[in-house]
Design a protein that fits this description.
Elements: E1 3-7, H1 11-22, E2 26-30, E3 46-48, H2 50-55, E4 59-62, H3 66-74, H4 77-80, E5 84-87, E6 92-94, E7 100-103, H5 110-117, E8 122-126, H6 132-135, E9 147-151, H7 154-166, E10 174-178, H8 184-188, H9 193-200
Parallel strand pairs: 1-2, 1-4, 2-3, 4-5, 5-8, 9-10
Antiparallel strand pairs: 6-7, 8-9
Helix pairs in contact: 3-5
């Protein structure tokens, strides 16, 4: 059992929290406004401030909006020291329709920016190339999907790989791309989402690497 903090109050946070609790993990939700979780928070989940959630955790999931994640997480830099930070967000500038427009960090990635801003934290990028419903239920797709992992720390990636398997990802579906620089490609895939939605509707999707 791991002590896990999930930062965020949206559908991604809810989906991950529910699945990880079902696997026996101790989950604390960290949010600015605790009323935002009242529609889905169930025992034994606990909701508290972002700082308190981070302090009590071994592994922290960033499920906050990617375009503001760097500022939010830099504010708890000391609390994050020595922790594993699993970044599942995509940093984009939104269009008028609310869908992803351009990358917030062209030529880099949110994962890289977080690792640079939080040098004492082990950042692992993963789960950002799919609809939120697939993150904790990859078996819901008709075709086996691939989940990418990027990070500078082998031990942190090993821990995150174990959590991915708890979420239903098989060892063969988990692809370690290398260091945190390799988060650029998976993060850029978010730019295809508006066209995918236009072509197929808001249906569950993920990326598959076929060989």
């Amino acid at each position: 059992m791991s002590r896990i903090a999930i930062l965020g109050a949206g559908r991604v946070a809810s989906s991950l929290a529910t699945a990880l609790v079902e696997q026996g993990h101790q989950v604390t939700i960290g949010v600015r406004d605790q009323t935002r979780t009242r529609d889905w928070l169930v025992e034994p989940m606990v909701c508290t401030s972002i700082g308190e959630a981070v302090v009590g955790a071994d592994v922290v999931f960033n499920a906050t909006p990617g375009e503001t994640s760097l500022e939010r997480l830099s504010a708890v830099r000391e609390e994050l020291a020595g922790k594993i930070l699993v970044d599942v967000s995509n940093a984009v500038e939104r269009g008028l329709n609310g869908l992803p427009g351009t990358l917030t960090y062209p030529g880099s990635s949110l994962g890289e920016m977080l690792q640079a801003a939080l040098p004492d934290t082990k950042v692992v990028k993963t789960l950002n190339t799919m609809l939120f419903t697939v993150m904790a239920n990859p078996g819901s797709l008709s075709t086996p999907a691939t989940v990418f992992v990027s990070g500078d720390h082998a031990d942190a990636k090993a821990t995150v790989t174990g959590l991915l398997q708890d979420l239903g990802w098989t060892p063969g579906s988990i692809l370690d791309l290398g260091d945190i620089r390799t988060a650029r490609g998976p993060e850029a895939m978010i730019l295809a989402v508006p066209d995918l939605i236009a072509a197929r509707g808001l249906a569950p999707f993920a990326i598959t690497v076929a060989s």
